[in-house]
């Protein structure tokens, strides 16, 4: 989907449930929002633009590979990645946090952060206090680091572990 070439709106929302064995590849500018109860098993690949999850099962049951663009979550709970998640240097992961206790991204397999940007925003009236530790990512195993972590309205110290990432909120 490349909005600059016409044929699609700059933002397209797929509300239907997607199933089967196919793979979703998002290329080009524009944004694609997925809000169905998706179960497809072929995975998702983001190369450019924005791919947004508006449901916890937006990305189905496969691996998610982000080599460019922005993967955003507006899911009402922890976004479930039922396979592996890989993020490369030229990409952004944007997460909206609604509480400190619930992770925002739950990866059933291995997560690899080979650079890139993590951007965290707060939603639903939640505002952390300085010194709070927020669960951001939980995975079976976690390797690597983000090049940049930005937290809307705060500074933050990343706390990486073998199974995920927490952020300690600063001034």
Protein model, in words:
The structure is a single chain. This protein is mainly beta and 171 residues long. It has one domain (3-169). The chain has no helices and 16 strands. Strands 2, 4, 6, 8, 9, 11, 13, 15 and 16 form a 9-stranded mixed sheet that branches. A hairpin with a 2-residue loop joins strand 15 and strand 16 (164-169). The model has no long low-confidence stretch (mean pLDDT 92).
Largest sheet: 9 strands, mixed
Low-confidence stretches: none
Radius of gyration: 15 Å
**Considering DSSP H and I runs of 4 or more, what fraction of the residues is helical?**
under 10%
Q: What is the number of helical segments per DSSP (H or I, 4+ residues)?
A: 0
Sum up the overall morphology in one term. Answer: globular
Overall mean pLDDT stands at: 92
**Amino- and carboxy-terminal Cα gap:** 40 Å
Which terms summarize this structure?
171 residues; mainly beta; 9-stranded mixed sheet; 7-stranded parallel sheet; 0% helix
């Amino acid at each position: 989907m490349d909005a600059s070439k016409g044929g699609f709106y700059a933002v397209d929302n797929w509300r239907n449930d997607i199933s089967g064995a196919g793979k979703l590849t998002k290329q080009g500018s524009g944004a694609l929002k997925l809000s169905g109860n998706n179960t497809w098993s072929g995975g998702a690949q983001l190369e450019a633009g924005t791919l947004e999850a508006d449901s916890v099962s937006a990305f189905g049951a496969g691996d998610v590979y982000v080599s460019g663009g922005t993967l955003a979550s507006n899911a009402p709970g922890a976004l479930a990645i039922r396979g592996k998640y890989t993020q490369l240097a030229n990409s952004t992961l944007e997460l909206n946090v609604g509480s400190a206790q619930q992770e925002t991204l739950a990866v059933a397999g291995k997560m690899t952060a080979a650079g890139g940007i993590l951007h965290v925003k707060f939603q639903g009236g939640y505002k952390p206090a300085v010194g709070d530790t927020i669960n951001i990512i939980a995975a079976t195993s976690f390797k690597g680091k983000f090049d940049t972590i930005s937290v809307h309205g705060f500074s933050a110290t990343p706390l990486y572990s073998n199974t995920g990432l927490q952020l300690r909120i600063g001034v």
